[in-house]
Amino acid sequence: MKKRMVWRRLRRQVGIGLVFATVAGGLWYFQESEYRDRLTWKGTPEWDSMAPLSWHRVLRNDGFLVGWSDVRVSPLWVSYLLHDDKRSRIAERPDFQRDWRTIWPVQPTGYRGSGYDRGHLAPNYALAAVHGRDAQQASFLMSNITPQRPDLNRRLWQRLEEAVMDHFVPRFDQLLVITGPIFHDDFSRGVLNRVGFVEIPEAFYKILVVPGETPRGLAFMMPQDVKGDEPLDDFLVSIDEIEARTGLDFLPALNAEQQQRLESRIRTEGWGLEQVADLPGRYE
DNA sequence: TTTTATGT
């Protein structure tokens, strides 16, 4: 008799709890996607459901988003918008910081003696100049950092980032940048190929998109072992190729026809690449 | 005013 009443009450409470959790979760998700939409264009990268290595969760920062993989212990992509409205002075470089959202401990000191640089994906300068101090500090979170060989990070990659800020952003006014690592096809190669817990990529990609009715796109893929003074256009690839290598789908909210046009082949017309492809780096 | 590591 009494037992049945207790059961009924319990069931009702669980029911109310579930409804509450669902509503709260829905509200959270709604608000979170509003925040994300403000930081991107045509959605954030989505993963191929058949490829667990491309699964990730989104970390939201001031000025940029990070697709974080707890399997690779690495960001799979970062995404940020740039516009031609730069601050004239930017603050000093902050210290690298542990990001407590990553679960696996990735310490700022963890790269010491590894032969790899702590390479930014979302760059210090661009984030600081366009999005301000909080974004700059967030760019030094270890969730935004991947192991990069010094000749890539300080030379070729630096030249590409400089071309983005000094050439492409002024040229087009607004730019969406998606950038990230590319890993060896064979996951077993990555199990021990790590700096601390962080898997070491084979190469890196950077996708530039000019938002608009008929968007323009340009994409690069650069391996770890470069000298650093190569012409930037040696590394052009189609976005489709990057999708094939990463298991990610970029700009998922763009309609199929536009995606096909934008992603299937390399189109350099209008970018003025020849003006920047051979510019020397800042730290030769 | 654009990158980092250095048992400094």
From TrEMBL:
<feature type="domain" description="DNA/RNA non-specific endonuclease/pyrophosphatase/phosphodiesterase">
    <location>
        <begin position="60"/>
        <end position="257"/>
    </location>
</feature>
<feature type="binding site">
    <location>
        <position position="153"/>
    </location>
    <ligand>
        <name>Mg(2+)</name>
    </ligand>
</feature>
<keyword id="KW-0540">Nuclease</keyword>
<keyword id="KW-1133">Transmembrane helix</keyword>
<dbReference type="InterPro" id="IPR044925">
    <property type="entry name" value="His-Me_finger_sf"/>
</dbReference>
<dbReference type="GO" id="GO:0004519">
    <property type="term" value="F:endonuclease activity"/>
</dbReference>
<dbReference type="Pfam" id="PF01223">
    <property type="entry name" value="Endonuclease_NS"/>
</dbReference>
<keyword id="KW-0479">Metal-binding</keyword>
<feature type="domain" description="ENPP1-3/EXOG-like endonuclease/phosphodiesterase">
    <location>
        <begin position="61"/>
        <end position="257"/>
    </location>
</feature>
<dbReference type="InterPro" id="IPR044929">
    <property type="entry name" value="DNA/RNA_non-sp_Endonuclease_sf"/>
</dbReference>
<keyword id="KW-0255">Endonuclease</keyword>
<feature type="transmembrane region" description="Helical">
    <location>
        <begin position="12"/>
        <end position="30"/>
    </location>
</feature>
<dbReference type="InterPro" id="IPR040255">
    <property type="entry name" value="Non-specific_endonuclease"/>
</dbReference>
<dbReference type="GO" id="GO:0016787">
    <property type="term" value="F:hydrolase activity"/>
</dbReference>
<keyword id="KW-0472">Membrane</keyword>
<dbReference type="InterPro" id="IPR001604">
    <property type="entry name" value="Endo_G_ENPP1-like_dom"/>
</dbReference>
<protein>
    <submittedName>
        <fullName>Endonuclease G</fullName>
    </submittedName>
</protein>
<dbReference type="GO" id="GO:0003676">
    <property type="term" value="F:nucleic acid binding"/>
</dbReference>
<keyword id="KW-0812">Transmembrane</keyword>
<dbReference type="GO" id="GO:0046872">
    <property type="term" value="F:metal ion binding"/>
</dbReference>
<dbReference type="InterPro" id="IPR020821">
    <property type="entry name" value="ENPP1-3/EXOG-like_nuc-like"/>
</dbReference>
<keyword id="KW-0378">Hydrolase</keyword>
<feature type="active site" description="Proton acceptor">
    <location>
        <position position="120"/>
    </location>
</feature>
